[in-house]
Protein: Oxidoreductase
Amino acid sequence: MTTPRITWGLIGASDIAETRMIPAMRRVGHRVARLASGDAAHAARFAGRNEIPYGTGEFGLDELLDDPNIDAVYISSTNARHLAQASAAAAAGKHVLCEKPVALDLQSAHRMTAVCAAHGVVLGVNHHLPAAGTHRVVRELVRDGAIGRVLAVNVQHTSLLPERLRGWRLGDAAGSGVVMDLTCHDASVVNPLVEARALHASAIAARQHDWGPGHAEDVAVSALEYEGGVVVRLHDAFTTPYAPTRLEVYGDGGSIVADGVMTPEPDGTLVLRDARGEREVEVSDRRHTYDITLHHFASATAGEGRPVVDGRDAADALAVALAVLDSARSERTVPVEFSTIPATGSTITQPENS
Structure:
């Protein structure tokens, strides 16, 4: 089946829309037709720079959603607006790709899933890392028993936050800070990898640099226990130039070390160590993570497969991030609280040529 070419309406004139998603949409043959944003002047400049035919301020959401040519919306506005905007889009019959975190609380996350399901539209959440060819190979190795029973996972998700992004991420509003920005990404990787849910979280968070408009944490280190006794360590930071990113998976029959894989770029190497020694594992799919995300989203809108990360997957990732925040702020180990809505399963099997 040919993957449909989606005509998009953008809700939010964000940096990620401009630097990541619009280029990805055009690489995969999609069309960006409309923009709705909160500031008319900013919307006009953004639309002009990115050659979007229609850009309106004060969100102009009704006008965008009334356009019969719009197939789907990409929401990258502030997190607090996600639920209302996704609900309006679903009611208008538009499929929804929402930026992460999907919401600021689990109730809102699950309401978004329910609303989209009720209106028969696809909800995808832009956790791009599980889409990567490297991550797919790691999941396949684990699923095939290459390292035996998984015992531990370590994630190092560290970099220096670019100057242009040192705004709301470092402020005091809900959704700011490294945990909601990066830790939820980590969880979107770990959850389908271990195919289990987190039980408890213990975390510390700090402000290492005097930058930005507020006091949100810019580094966090977390320890989590998952079902089956799997232990997970996450190190997330905006503060570390020249730091590599890494995913390590340790089992009772071997280990996988994936260097440079916690980024959107199709980079990174995988090394498998077991009783036969150490060897690099080939990764054949080197497409950009956002391109793969869009491919699966578009296929889902045509009734083929599912998004790489759907609303329930994203809610489970959010649950981990919220527990990490709670632990860091309360200085105690806390349970990871999930909704009673059952998970649908997060593992994505992607054909080599998809």
